[in-house]
């Protein structure tokens, strides 16, 4: 089974999602860290359980980072020495934002940074992890000590789905260990429970003093009120942090008085609730009561967000009905100061987040006000608007910013999609939103998730034809990219027929374009050229110009190149490059550079071809566009062998082979696309011999995606090897044969060149 390819964040022995986020936040817990480390050494599944707010997530993240570092250094090996070729990787999967058990596997794949464009399910992708992450050799064997540690954080509300995934991973992937975090066990065979109690009084006091100092307040650890406050809060870290946020306005003694009153009122709580759960709920409720009416209102309304959110979203979604938009910033600042809301830096800028326990408390209050559905609609409206803006700005100098923002906003976009595809009267907005995000599904490596939402959307009766037509052609596009030709053809046929019936010139142009893509990758060049020219003419008639239109021109250029008209292909792609440069567009431009590099190599200008491909690969890799990346690496291999470095060419071919496994059918099963690959392989084998060639291919296959891209780009800045005159002549002679298909074509559908 082919393997997906990893991209960041999974690197080295940890991810940014875990250790980095906790490096300045962790206080105490040294004994628990040691005990958890020993548990991880002795069991493949350890579940940290305990009350909400007891500090499970922070402890697990710190323990995972330390365990990975220790295993990498060989602390668990014989004599403390690391086994040869040891690799230890870990990743934290935040499950709290998920509401649908169906997305558990998706969340794990995403946390691992895997890109997989194939029809394989996320579960199948995860079961291939040893080969994907280099934790298994060619025969499937694993070096002693090689491990992948998954931290599944927040499993309680998705326990059944998590248990099923973990059980299968432990059974079928021996390199995997799991550290689960939740309020209940998973119930999987071999599970070792690690119940986490609140820290001892001294550590709770240290935490309160530390957090108070971060709020600019100095309190003494020896103050009896401070110690009594921590005792009354039972040392629960979340409760202590909420109390620290209140010390800006209340002294420890006054705070303790108010807390005493609150606890006195709630001593008769339900007997079936664990005492520490009552303590936490009491502490949160007490903090809630100390808030002003505006703060309580915003707290409740913020619960509509999933994951991180920005100030502009808060101002739009949460304002009105007793909270003026101009007051939102100040009120949010107060909640931030009280530790109800946390601030974080992301690639898309400053974001805010609520701990799940705090968010759930706010959601109860929002439901009690009867205002929850209105807030969900406002939330939906904001993220539909955001997706619309991102689609427009994708064709602009902000393209990289859009990609980063979409990555950050995905949890809230999923929440909006869920609302639109399940709520009454929302289907047309679900179709619009799923179609609007085409650039996320196709351009940023999220084909599987896009397919899920698009299929859900088009199955609904929305009553808005244009929204459904767009969802249909985007669904066809995604299916083509996955090499799934039958559903693609069905969606295209339905889209074209409905477009003609409704006289939608735009939908007809896009449907015809995608039909041309399908013909291109199935080697029907004449049909592809006919459809693509017709689609481009339709685009011109309606005044459509964007990244998709430019991709259509690049694909037309490929048909011309494959039919032997390289000057026309160059003319078309130079035009695309000029337009992209004028608009600051980089994604479509990368594919235009690929075609131009193909032409430059064909004319014997390997140096120029290499420069073009380095630029192409840099942009494609930056967007997590695995298809663009692997095409560039394939062509770089051919350029490299033409420069005389057959060993490096074979290494690049090996790396590309692993990447293709995540795209789908190698080189789309296209004889035309395969011709450069076969030419490169034949030349490299001739220079190296079969045994040395195969060894270099294996070396390349062992590289991860990051290492492969870095290696391919590393040569771009070095002086290329001067090819011998006869080698240049031989290369040119063989290049002429690329106008015709290779000898043994596999005429199956694959992935489109866009």
How would you concisely characterize the structure shown here?
This protein is mostly helical. It is 62% helix and 6% strand.
Assembly type? single chain
Helix content: 55-70%
The secondary structure category is mainly alpha
Number of extended strands:
9
Could you characterize what this model shows?
- With 754 residues, the chain is mainly alpha-helical.
- The chain has 35 helices and 9 strands.
- The protein has a 5-stranded parallel beta sheet, sandwiched between helices. It has a two-stranded antiparallel ribbon with strand order 1-4. A two-stranded antiparallel ribbon has the order 8-9.
- Helix 19 (427-436) packs across helix 22 (465-481).
- The protein is globular.
Quick tags:
mainly alpha; disordered C terminus; two-stranded antiparallel sheet; 754 residues
List the SSEs and their pairings.
Blueprint: E1 5-6, H1 16-22, H2 30-42, E2 45-49, H3 56-73, E3 88-94, H4 104-111, E4 114-115, H5 122-127, H6 129-132, E5 147-153, H7 159-172, E6 176-182, E7 192-195, H8 201-214, H9 224-232, H10 237-246, H11 252-265, H12 275-290, H13 293-302, H14 311-318, H15 328-337, E8 342-346, E9 349-353, H16 356-369, H17 372-393, H18 399-422, H19 427-436, H20 438-443, H21 447-458, H22 465-481, H23 485-501, H24 505-521, H25 525-542, H26 547-562, H27 566-583, H28 587-602, H29 606-622, H30 626-642, H31 646-663, H32 671-688, H33 690-701, H34 705-714, H35 725-735
Parallel strand pairs: 2-6, 2-7, 3-5, 5-6
Antiparallel strand pairs: 1-4, 8-9
Helix pairs in contact: 2-3, 8-9, 8-10, 9-11, 10-12, 11-12, 13-15, 13-16, 14-17, 17-18, 17-19, 18-19, 19-21, 19-22, 21-22, 22-23, 22-24, 23-24, 24-25, 24-26, 25-26, 26-27, 26-28, 27-28, 28-29, 28-30, 29-30, 30-31, 30-32, 31-32, 31-33, 31-34, 32-33
